[in-house]
Amino acid sequence: MISEELKSLLKKQKYRFAGSHSLVKICHYTQSSMTKNQWCYKNQFYGIKSHQCLQCTTTPFCFNQCIFCWRAQPGEVNAGTDDSNGMECDNPEEIIEKMLEAQRKLLSGIGGHYSVNSELWREAQNPKHVALSVLGEPIAYPKLKELLSEFHKRGMSTFLVTAGGAPGAIRNMIKENYFPTQLYISMAAFDEDSFNRIMRPKNKDGWKRYLQSLKLMKEAGKHTRTVVRMTLIKGLNMDLDYVKDYGNLIRIAEPHYVEVKAYMAVGFSRKRVGLQGMPYMEEIREFAEKLGKEINYIMTDEHKDSRVVLLSKDENAKKNRFIDFTKIR
Is the dihedral of CA 177, 179, 182, 186 positive or negative? Predict the structure, then answer.
């Protein structure tokens, strides 16, 4: 069960529930795209329209307690046990309808902003992209196949992010041939010790599961676009001496893209890591250049505000990085 304390905290953090366990939150760039003409890195890298992006999750629960996560974790506040066992599962159609309803309610306040682009605001009422990533492990939702299918039927692209704690869910995708438009695995550790210190898995075999997920990503990449998204934290996991170790992990997955991204001091992560953990863009660029040479990936693009660099596996990936919404399945 989701405790009332956790529900209250999530609402204060501007999340809105869409049913009993799914949540929606307006991204900073969803608002700034309509009010300041500022667009997120996914818009720049892949052609996703920030104002039509639905940032959501099917569960606030996770297999890890990453030190860089912005959400509150058990022990930090009276937020419950962080356990989804025994929860009843909402149906995909109900989840999506309630997500869209929650998104529109959150957008209503932006519509009255003095500098809002009214045309973009009207378009925002009908999202075209779904980012299943805002918190928790949405890949663990039992009816993920049906959920993705329903989103795709509506012409919405889907980016699904996992921290690698549920390799069985990726295995099911491959076995049953259903995939998000783009599948992400987070990477913030270069070996088992750093994984246990930084990702802090709740399962004793967390590292083993993570390696299995990377192996399965290679197979999934034959069917859908794949990305390793790195979170680099100054003083913890971004020493240039670790590049070779990261390279060995990335070669297991062979993703189409690698996003080399700086940790950002937001939410409860400020209590665990703080501002001193945020790398400068110049440091991210230097790390990405060295990593690209290590794994023979192409430096493709960068987004300075988000402090992220995009690496592409080859020229084909670089050329075809923009989502073709006419082929959403």
Answer: negative
